[in-house]
């Protein structure tokens, strides 16, 4: 089955005998034990499993081409579970513009517990190679990266990881499996903030981990999920499942609009640079073209001519774009990223991050035209 069909069929209601077409929300935290002590479908207690969560996890695993999926109450909870599956003294490689909260989580929490991290430029093969140590257990990749839209060649990093017996995890939040399938390119683990494109409507928080094999790492993550309890509520699972039904449609439309907007902004005299992997001017356009399908995503960032003040003023002049953090919803958002990340961030002060929504492209371009005029 093709992606769009799989997205619909994988979320069909197969757990009830009421014949309801839409899946009911199973709020029950506990499930009746049979006389012989067994449970139907292994449903026991909602921290361990729940029908809405199971349907969502099956769907996510299928869409990413993985064997198994675990969902969490947020993207950060999913990332925490992956890091928690490692042991004191293990070493992890992170990209230099990794999602800022991941950087904070490593320095403020996991380093205290004895996990070691090295930050590298993931687009530089030699830098990655020379950062590998005997205790390196995981390479973490984000492509395109946040907020500079750097591209990492997943096949290349996967080759390095395999040769050195290291796991490769890809945060695929920005691309979604509509555009990029990391497991097919050699990654072992895919992680998502399902808050973004899967949910798609800025009204639900969630995260997931999808693995290529149901191996020891998968079992560890499953155990951490159930023990530490950072699980999504049945209603959140239901909302994310509903989002998945239109994921392909939304992402392809938003991607098309983003490319047009990127092309417009690239020619504008008030814009110094546009970071968008679908532009020929992007230094890693060839890698993006090789590994992405159906387009280059609905996220971009621009460097404004001027300073932080000039950039922030533009966000205030935009009327169709809403000034807010996050991404992947139906509404277009803009944000001065350095203000969000704080003083230690190495994001340029004149950078604005843009999440393109489902509005008409002409309205979005007109909005930038008026906001950039004096
Ligand atoms: C938002 C985001 C996260 C964190 O997910 P939450 O659902 O907000 O916890 C992680 N990685 C990327 C790339 C994100 O955009």
TrEMBL record:
The keyword Transmembrane helix does not apply. InterPro entries: Cys/Met-Metab_PyrdxlP-dep_enz, Cys_met_metab_PP, PyrdxlP-dep_Trfase, PyrdxlP-dep_Trfase_major, PyrdxlP-dep_Trfase_small. It comes from the Bacteria. The keyword Transmembrane helix does not apply. Its cofactor is pyridoxal 5'-phosphate. Keywords: Pyridoxal phosphate. PROSITE patterns: CYS_MET_METAB_PP. Belongs to the trans-sulfuration enzymes family. This is Cystathionine gamma-synthase. It comes from Algibacter aquimarinus.
């Amino acid at each position: 089955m093709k992606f769009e069909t799989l997205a619909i069929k994988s979320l069909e209601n197969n757990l009830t005998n009421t014949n309801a077409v839409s899946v009911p929300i199973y709020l029950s935290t506990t499930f009746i034990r049979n006389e012989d002590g067994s449970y139907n479908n292994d449903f026991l207690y909602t921290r361990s499993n729940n029908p809405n969560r199971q349907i969502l996890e099956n769907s996510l695993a299928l869409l990413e081409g993985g064997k198994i999926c675990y969902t969490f109450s947020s993207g950060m909870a999913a990332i925490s579970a992956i890091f928690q599956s490692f042991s004191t003294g293990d070493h992890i490689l992170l990209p230099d513009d990794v999602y800022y909260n991941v950087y904070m989580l490593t320095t403020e929490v996991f380093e205290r517990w004895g996990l070691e991290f090295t930050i590298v430029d993931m687009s530089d093969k030699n830098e990655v190679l020379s950062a590998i140590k005997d205790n390196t257990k995981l390479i973490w990749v984000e492509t395109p990266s946040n907020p500079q839209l750097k591209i990492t060649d997943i096949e290349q990093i996967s080759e390095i990881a395999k040769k050195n017996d290291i796991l490769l995890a890809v945060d695929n939040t920005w691309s979604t499996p509509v555009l990029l399938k990391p497991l097919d390119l050699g990654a072992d683990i895919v992680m998502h903030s399902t808050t973004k494109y899967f949910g798609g409507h800025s009204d639900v928080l969630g995260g997931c981990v999808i693995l290529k094999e149901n191996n020891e790492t998968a079992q560890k993550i499953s155990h951490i999920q159930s023990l530490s309890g950072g699980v999504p509520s049945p209603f959140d699972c239901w909302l994310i499942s509903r989002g998945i039904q239109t994921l392909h449609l939304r992402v392809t439309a938003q991607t098309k609009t983003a490319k047009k907007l990127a092309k417009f902004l690239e020619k504008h005299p008030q814009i110094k640079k546009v970071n968008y992997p679908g532009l020929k001017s992007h230094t890693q356009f060839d890698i993006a073209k090789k590994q992405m399908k159906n387009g280059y995503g609905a996220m971009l960032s621009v460097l404004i001519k001027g300073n932080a003040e000039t950039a922030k003023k533009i966000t205030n002049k935009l009327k169709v774009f809403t000034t807010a953090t996050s991404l992947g919803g139906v509404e277009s958002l803009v944000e001065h990223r350095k203000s969000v990340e704080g003083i230690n961030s190495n994001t340029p002060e004149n950078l604005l991050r843009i999440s393109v929504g489902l509005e008409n492209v002409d309205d979005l371009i007109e909005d930038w035209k008026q906001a950039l005029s004096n």
